[in-house]
Specification:
The protein has a single domain, classed as Glutaredoxin, CATH 3.40.30.10. By secondary structure, it is an alpha+beta fold. Helix content is 43%, strand content 17%. It has a 4-stranded mixed beta sheet with strand order 2-1-3-4, with helices on one face. Helix 3 packs across helix 4. Strand 3 and strand 4 form a beta hairpin. It contains 4 helices and 4 strands, in the order H-E-H-H-E-E-E-H.
């Protein structure tokens, strides 16, 4: 018979494992704008680039998620990169090609692409 404490420990271990598998504790978080207007501007393609980079192992320790409308339609699609201990960086008018540049220059090499940053 399983004791209540053993059941609790098992559930806790399962929860911690789920958190780690989903990447919630990653040092880098990437948010792609996926509101209706951003999707119309091409954000699905941008999201796919980031998904492929993560699934193929090009980048590691990255949590990828969607974000809603930022009210900046003229700058869509947008991507926000949040790194532990640093200020968030928001990029505007991100294309598939720019997404790859954000991955290689910013996420992998730590170089912010200033000309694409939005305030």
């Amino acid at each position: 018979m399983t004791t209540p404490l053993e059941t609790l420990r098992k559930k806790r271990a399962e929860s911690v494992n789920r958190i780690l598998q989903k990447g919630y504790l990653a040092n880098t978080r990437v948010y792609v704008g996926m509101a209706t207007c951003e999707i119309a501007a091409g954000s699905k393609d941008v999201m796919e680039v980031f998904q492929n980079a993560i699934s193929t192992g090009k980048v590691k320790d990255v949590y990828l998620s969607q974000k809603g409308c930022a009210g900046r339609c003229n700058l869509e699609p947008t991507v926000e990169v949040v790194e532990a201990g640093k200020n968030p960086i928001k990029y505007g008018k991100v294309t598939k090609e720019r997404a790859w540049d954000i991955i290689t220059k910013h996420i992998i090499n730590g170089e912010v692409i200033e000309e694409w940053v939005i305030e």
